């Protein structure tokens, strides 16, 4: 039987909106909490490629699929780029942009009364 999930306070939602991200340690796990638009996302701070602290990477956009000789850039501030080898992950889904079998581990984050909590 698994233990019931517990809420762990992270920070004020306004604080996260100002900073863009927060890395919290809960139950010995480093977790990166991000805000994109008005939604919150939480990912394990470990890259599935080589174990880098992926949540410390650059938040940016990326090249979108386009025709030959065309360059289309998009998803600004929705992409997390690993600081070690540059693998790119969709901040909204945790999916690697090229290899659909690779995904960041997700955690639940909730807002209540202006405060953010990880549920785990
Ligand atoms: S460790 Fe993240 S891309 Fe290699």
What would a concise description of this structure say?
The chain has 1 helix and 9 strands; from the N terminus they run βαββββββββ.
What does this structure look like?
By secondary structure, the protein is mainly beta. It has one domain (7-119): Rieske [2Fe-2S] iron-sulphur domain (Rieske Iron-sulfur Protein, 3-layer Sandwich), CATH 2.102.10.10. It contains 1 helix and 9 strands, in the order E-H-E-E-E-E-E-E-E-E. The chain has one helix at 13-19, and strands at 7-12, 21-26, 29-36, 39-44, 58-64, 72-81, 88-90, 106-112, 115-119. A 6-stranded antiparallel sheet has the order 1-9-8-4-3-2. A 3-stranded antiparallel sheet has the order 5-6-7, with no helix packed on it. A hairpin with a 2-residue loop joins strand 8 and strand 9. The longest helix is centred in the N-terminal third of the chain and has 7 residues, at 13-19. The two termini are 15 Å apart. The structure holds FE2/S2 (inorganic) cluster. Residues 47, 49-50, 52, 54, 82, 84-85, 87 line the site of FE2/S2 (inorganic) cluster.
């Amino acid at each position: 039987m698994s233990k019931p999930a517990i809420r762990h306070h992270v920070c004020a939602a306004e604080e996260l909106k100002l900073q863009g991200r927060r890395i919290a340690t809960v139950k010995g796990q480093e977790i990166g909490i991000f805000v994109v638009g008005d939604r919150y996302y939480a990912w394990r701070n470990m890259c599935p490629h080589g174990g880098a602290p992926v949540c410390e990477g650059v938040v940016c956009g990326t090249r979108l699929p386009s025709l030959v000789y065309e360059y289309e850039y998009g998803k600004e501030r929705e992409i997390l780029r690993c600081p070690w080898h540059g693998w790119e992950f969709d901040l909204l889904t945790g999916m690697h942009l090229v290899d659909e079998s690779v995904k960041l581990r997700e955690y639940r984050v909730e807002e209540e009364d202006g405060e953010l909590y990880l549920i785990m």
